[in-house]
Amino acid sequence: MSGGGGYGGGAGSGFGGGGGFGGCASITAVTCNTQLLAPVNIAIDPNISTVRTHEKEQIKTLNNRFASFIDKVRFLEQQNKVLETKWSLLQDQTTTRSNIDAMFEAYIANLRRQLDGLGNEKMKLEGELRNMQGLVEDFKNKYEDEINKRACVENEFVLLKKDVDGAYMNKVELEAKVDSLQDEINFLRAVFEAELNELQGQIKDTSVIVEMNNSRSLDMDSIVAEVKAQYEEIANKSKQDAECWYQQKYEEIQCSAGNAGEDLRNTKTEIAELNRMISRLQNEIESVKGQRVNLEAQIAEAEERGEIAVKDAKARIRDLEDALQRAKQDMARQVREYQELMNVKLALDIEIATYRKLLEGEESRVAGGGASATIHIQSSSSGGGGGGGGGGGGYGSSYGISGGGGGGGGGGGYGISSSSYGGGVSSGMSSGMSSGMSAYGGGRSSYGGGSSGGSMTMKSSSSSSRQSYR
Fold first, then answer.
1. What's the DSSP call for residue 41?
2. Could you tell me which residue ranges the IF rod domain spans (predicted)?
């Protein structure tokens, strides 16, 4: 398995014999596979924690079932002993007419009364549940109505905002028109003044015989001022009206949004309370159903037990013995399943502990300034030899795992190699585990059987690289 920001590779080979030592292979030419330069995605499955949690829950459930089954078996054994004692007492005693039928009938009648009471209570709880479901539906409808109202208000707010933007654009256009008209008025005023000055100059050079003033005075300044005042008044009025309308609509929308939000929070609170109440009632109903089922089972068992005791006690004892035998067989089967699950759990715990140690070593190496670690594990064998080796080299931040083949004589090898900026990590293991193969990403590890012990040495050297393990 290799991954990271660089290149890393590892290869290992192992030889084992009866004496417990490894041999060396001949040196061959080193070649590089260009496909190994591509980065490899070694992301861990995000569902691994869910799977582990599910396995733990299954183990807990099986443990609980096993404990309850053991209790049931013990109870049946006690009942068997009680029945054997009663049978021996009945055989020792003289044959007398007992009133056991009346006792069983009274017991059965009592259980039936309890069952009827539980049935009535169940009907009452079912009625309450239906009422609560109706309330929940009403609140759901109210909640949906509030959501629809809120959406409508938000749409109205968007439309109002668009209208306000349009009014503002109209105001800007009107202001631009006012400015253009003002410029035009100033231009006309300048033209009028120029023409007036020209006419006055012409009048000074002309002798007038009869002076008549038939022209009406035209006060352009007052007209321009009046027009300007009118346009300014219209613009100010439009601006004030638009601002007042926008402010009013904005306040109305804020008020309605606040009310809708408060109603929504209240509705959510009520829905949560009703959900809790429904859950509580459902739990109570399930509990009552369980009690009813238990009582029905007890009634059936009591009737069967009474009939068998009245008719033939020996037949009942044989039935109980058969049931006990079946229970023991079922218990043995469950014990075997439990042992298999424990074996799987033990293997998973060993694997988790191994990877935890690797991660802790890598974290301590990174915490110590990015130092690379070299792990070497040697094996000494008493009965059969085994060995494995791995080596890796490369550049960048990389990590590689390669498994070396196990030697003869019952030996096996497991190798890990990693390289980072010239630093390498290699390890070899041989253990007395059963042969197996497991794959993580693109890496492969092999376990071989053999009676051998392992020793581990760790050597750290400083490096600036960092490696992450997912």
1. -
2. 55-366
pLDDT, position 377 = 38
Distance, in Å, from the CA atom of 154 to the CA atom of 199, rounded to the nearest integer, reads 66
Question: Mapped to the 3 state alphabet, what secondary structure does 71-108 carry?
Answer: HHHHHHHHHHHHHHHHHHHHHHCCCCCCCHHHHHHHHH
Distance CA 189, CA 380 (A): 114
The residue-averaged pLDDT of 209-219 equals 51
293 vs 287: CA distance, rounded Å: 10
Would you state the structure tokens that stand for residue 295, as one six-digit string? 């009582």
Mean pLDDT of the chain: 68
Q: Where are the alpha helices (H) located in 312-380, listed in sequence order?
A: 313-367
Of 319, 417, 306, the C-alpha closest to 372 is: 417
First to last CA, the chain: 12
Nearest to 36, CA basis, from 11, 63, 70, 73: 11
pLDDT tens track for 126-158? 888 888 888 888 888 888 888 888 888 888 888
Take residue 60 and report the two structure tokens written for it.
């807990």
